[in-house]
Amino acid sequence: MTLAFGPRPGLDQAVTSPHARAVESALAFWAEAGVDTCYSETPIDRLAEGVARLKARAVAPRPVQAAAPAGRPAGPDVSAAVAEAKARAAEAQTLEALAAAIAAFDGCGLKVEGAKQAVFARGNPHGPVMAIGEGPGAEEDARGEPFVGKAGQLLDRMFEAAGLTDRVFITNTVFWRPPGNRTPTLAEQAVCAPFLHRAIALVQPKMLLLVGGASAKSVLQREEGILTLRGRWFEWHGEDGETLPALPTLHPAFLLRQPAAKKKAWLDLLTLTERLDRPGRPG
Length: 283
Ligand code: URA
Hints:
A hairpin with a 5-residue loop joins strand 5 and strand 6 (243-249). It contains 12 helices and 6 strands. It has helices spanning 12-16, 18-32, 46-56, 79-91, 95-104, 138-143, 150-161, 186-203, 213-220, 226-229, 252-257, 262-276; strands at residues 122-123, 129-133, 168-172, 207-211, 234-237, 243-249. The protein has one domain: Uracil-DNA glycosylase-like domain (Uracil-DNA Glycosylase, subunit E, 3-Layer(aba) Sandwich). 43% of the residues lie in helices and 10% in strands. The chain has 283 residues and is an alpha/beta fold. Uracil binds next to helix 7.
């Protein structure tokens, strides 16, 4: 994030005053430390705002609550946002149209929590593997493409080593950067899911690679941690009865922090390519 301000009419004096320089320096310090989003003291429920906007458009959806793990309270009612997302996603006949529909969608609270733009997908739209990450980070938010920061570069190197470059279409469970890189909530993932499902329908991958715990749990609707889920095949069920094999793996951001875990991620990619290249399977 750039915090350098150019001279602005009427503000030049403030910008060059010692006080302004001190503020600028403090902001630069916080940005370096990863704090790049400002909040006011009073919390604002952006999700409720988005839902209210959609309700005002007289959408009458069936109630959808973000699934909550057993024993925890149900998430907020995001029915209206999910219904709107489904309708917009269903209209998209191409990936370009889907990207435009996501960018125009106002039902996900993340859109107004500091994200610069929607981040949809990159990679081969005819690839047999769809990799689904958690959500865009700062670099992705700035560039408008998923997995282009340090974690994404590691993911690319792993795909290259496994012979998967050009065989993967890459997207996320949510399409706007969660502030401060927090994990997206189940509600945010539920609201974005119709777009993800439409992407799966348009790309028609042979299998899903679920990158990280937040992706695996949301896509498979499971509660176990990623260290339990990783490396095992699951079946993803679409709303229209379609199924796909899905393999959870470790997130490259985790691998950057815990390099010793790379071996496990490598084994996961070998598990993936073994199934992909099994004789008789078109890839
Ligand atoms: N992490 C993710 O899960 N997705 C991205 O696009 C970038 C980092």
